[in-house]
Amino acid sequence: MRVLVTGGDGQLARALADAVPERWQICVAGREGIDITMPSSVRNAFDEFEPQLVINAAAYTAVDKAEQEPEKAFAINTDGARTLAEQCAETGARLIHISTDFVFDGRKSYPYQPDDTPHPMGVYGSSKREGERLVLETLDSNGLVIRTAWLYGAGGRNFVTGMLARMQQGQALKVVSDQVGTPTWTRTLADALWQIARKPGLDGIWHFTDAGVASWYDFAVAIQEEAEALRLLKSPVAITPINSEAYKTAAMRPYYSVLDKSRTWEELGIVPVHWRLSLRGMLKELSDG
Hints:
Shape: globular
Radius of gyration: 19 Å
Strand content: 15-25%
Distance between the termini: 31 Å
Structural class: alpha/beta
Number of helices: 9
Strand order of the largest sheet: 2-1-3-4-5-10
Number of strands: 12
Order of helices and strands: EHEHEHEHEEHEEEHEEHEHH
């Protein structure tokens, strides 16, 4: 199997490269290798590698900045997704497209199902939702959307590495406590994506994150506790819970964006891993490395 992974400069692409199945050929392409906003670049990459499967991990993820530059967000998250889907349709390749919990507005109080009606609140979520729609519309049974949430990995810029850096500098923290979701390690997502890749016939929209729920405040407290246990911190810092009104951002965020993963876990035969265990594994990777 020849697999093209876009977004090669990002943390998910690196996790996918680390977990690739034996005897599968993988091409992890950053923007210099494939610019999904340019159809000619996509065609050239397909001509050169001839992928049978594409995992689109390329995305514009600067949620607040997207409010100031919507054209760029839509160019990558919507038009880029469509260009990949059209090229896959032309060559017969399968496409697994990575999407987000931000397609929902967070007004529910129980987990979102894959077939729940999306209602994004900002440019980022809207651009990702349009990308989803175009992938499925273009590819039908050969396209699959995986929504995930609160992604972090040892090699990227994310909430965990950002919080840890500030804790190591001794900074007291104020962290939002009224936004709830599920932290997800890139490694567990990558493993799930490779399992999905091995199963022909899956299409439509699926959800995957680690198990459990947390607020950003809960997540920050857990990062500190786990980091202390691994001696990544010399001393703890004060972490104060605050509400969203006290932490203004350019983009609105869902208050509740927990995704229902039960169908995915059942289909893949996955024993769910609680997010705190995944966090411990990621921090141990940092400690050992």
